[in-house]
Amino acid sequence: MRFTFFVLLYNKNYNESKTVTRLLEFSNIIKGSKVVLWNNGPNFLYEVGVFEPYSDKLSFEFKETVNNESLSKIYNAFIKENNSDFYVILDDDSDLTLDYITELVELEEKCLIATPIISDNNNFHYPVYQGKVVDKAPKFASEPLFSIGSGLVISHELKLFFLKTYGEVFDERFYFYGVDTSFFYRLFLNKLTGEIKVINGFEHSLSKLSKSQSLSKFRKLERSYDWGMQLRWYCGFGVAIKSLTSLCLKNFLRTVFKQQKLLSFRATFSAYVKGTHYKNTRYKKVSID
């Protein structure tokens, strides 16, 4: 199997997913590929008849974990359970383009890893290197290049390398936020950032906050745990202490001036000390400040 596509759905039926719709539209181009549709809840899905007209072009597999399972564990299970030249990770709301699909199917066998250019409302957001959106990975990277998980293309060769190095492709200490970030950190730590091929991308709805949006307690908690674990596992001790001190000071000033705190110092520090997500541990979830 040259390509195996993975679509993660949450609170959405198959026919409501923009990603699924686009894959079916491009079925002639990706003919012979496998599509794994993974419903992560909160309800079971039953309507699969929409795929019958495409069964002569694509093979489909349906998986369900309606308890909102860890993204890293789901990604790892998908990659381990399938044998393919390339694994394509997709969210359920990506507006895939012909340019993306065309460049994807034309990837050379020697390609190790590819990531698309991601835009939202016609503004480019990823991939990012040194704080700027780029269309090419640096040959000699001094820091990680970051992007989101949707559209990510992982080769079988990289899968084997990460399994040998870490025992898994995605870091399962991360649960929701940070799963993609820690993946790109691993590429950098193994001097593989320069191997990233940036390809034509698509529109994807991002969860970044606008100035008019408020930050929910859930997102604040998840972002705090993500940052704390990044500091613990992928940054040096000096950087971690400096970042935690800076966060403590910023939150104090935000309290004084009655401004919204973007991260919880208590949750960030807890994640740094414990080194894993609260859902992966016997420790209780901490309250946020």
Describe this structure in words.
It is a single chain. The protein is built from eight helices and twelve strands. The strands form two sheets. Strands 1, 2, 3, 4, 5, 6, 7, 11 and 12 form a nine-stranded mixed beta sheet that branches. A three-stranded antiparallel beta sheet has the order 9-8-10. A hairpin with a 2-residue loop joins strand 8 and strand 9 (132-133). It is globular. It has 289 residues and is of the alpha/beta class. The longest helix is centred in the last third of the chain and has 20 residues, at 237-256.
Briefly characterize the structure.
This protein has 289 residues and is an alpha/beta fold.
Question: Average pLDDT value?
Answer: 93
The N- to C-terminal Cα distance equals 49 Å
Task: List the secondary-structure elements in sequence, H or E.
Answer: EHEEHEEHEEEEEEHHEHHH
Q: What share of the residues does DSSP label as strand, in percent?
A: 15-25%
Beta strand count:
12
Poorly predicted tracts of residues: 209-213
- Report the C-alpha radius of gyration, rounded: 19 Å
